[in-house]
Amino acid sequence: MKINKPKIINYNKNNIITSFKNNDFNNYLYDENIEDNITINDITIDSCIFNGINFSNIKLEDVELIDVIFNNCDLSNKVFDEKLISRVVFNNCKLVGATFVNSSLKDVQFIDCSCKYVNFSSSKMRSISISNSDLSDSSFIESDIKNIEFNNVIFKNAEFMNTNLKDIDFSNSDINEIMFDIKSLNGIIVNSLQCHNLVNIFGVKVKY
Asked: Is residue 3 part of a domain?
């Protein structure tokens, strides 16, 4: 599946994150953390790279992401509800409890990420790749999904409800204790060993 990568060509290097206070979010590399508690609101972060940034003391309000790379960042509990997330890479990031409710995600990659309790409910997802990541207890309720690929993803206690997953391949991911409703289950791709787990969801007993 083709995913368009972030368009970052020329950026200002070694810019410290304190420039956030000036609402300057275009073409920068941020690689220094700050101790102050700050709020970033009503802005689009465009063509930026964040390396090793801990966002725990940075409050994001009404922030959209376009052409952004996050490397080794902690974005736990950040809220991106009803926002545009386009051509973004989350690489080795922590997004525990992050929410993307009713958001629009396109050309987004999650690589080696901890995404426990992440919420994609009512989101529109196009051209998404999630690999080597933990999505335990995540929610996909009434999500609109097209062109998504899962590669070695943990879905323990994740829930897919009222979501069309036809032809989406779960065969090399861990779907133990995953929760589907009938609509979401229809047409998914699994391997032979996973079939037994899916049958158990509906209380069907298999006699061998």
From this structure: no
